[in-house]
Amino acid sequence: MTTTRQGRRTWDEYLSEGTGPVQDDFLELTRTTRKSRHYCNDIIWGNLQTPDYARAVLRRVVDFHETPDDIEAGVAARTARAQFMGQENRTYHAVLGEQALRTNLGGVEVMRGQLVRLLDAFELPGLKLGVIPSRAELALFPGHCFSIFDGLSVEVETYSAELIITDKDEVALYEKAFRLLEGSALYGEEARALIEAELSAIS
């Protein structure tokens, strides 16, 4: 079964009260999840976003959907997700495409701060962070960003709505996709080197 968050509401409907309530829902999902996996090909995963980067992302959301401008409330809730890192044996596995390091949201200063944040993230407890080099041979086409929560549900964000997938067979398909994609990622010092190279390129 594939539905959207809060029944069948589109982003325009869901964001009608602003970004704050939406991000509060994501914060609660983070609080109740113990094991999550995230694939982001061209944007930094939300839990690792700096306030400036999150602000740039949410500014574009508000402008695109023409919704109430409560960006600071959204930024506060989004960045609050980081508090759960390492708490109560939670584990996170995030795989970023190298393009995520280069997609310019907010300008050079914002991106510089975001890349520094990613370098610091390697020390976060419970986090496994990988980066797929742009020239890596992939076992699966890149596809869209998605997140898997406790192996029970998958969330996919589109321009029009957020899909929540709970059908076991479909969840299993996303788990298979994640395994194939992570196989192309670099970890540890190799992943750090990719981030450092991009940081040097914009410094």
What can you tell me about this protein's structure?
Helix content is 45%, strand content 17%. The model is unreliable at 1-8 (pLDDT under 50). By secondary structure, it is an alpha/beta fold. The chain has a seven-stranded mixed β-sheet. The protein is built from eight helices and seven strands; from the N terminus they run βααβααβααββββαα.
Enumerate the strands of the largest sheet in spatial order, edge to edge or round the barrel. Answer: 1-7-6-5-2-3-4
> Oligomeric form of this entry?
single chain
Shape: globular
Care to count the β-strands? 7
Largest sheet: 7 strands, mixed
**CA-atom Rg in angstroms:** 16 Å
The topology string of helices and strands comes to EHHEHHEHHEEEEHH
Helical/strand content category: alpha/beta
Portion in strands: 15-25%
Helical residue percent? 40-55%
Determine the N-to-C terminus distance.
46 Å
What low-confidence regions span 5 or more consecutive residues with pLDDT below 50?
Answer: 1-8
Number of helices: 8
Mean of all residue-level pLDDT scores: 92
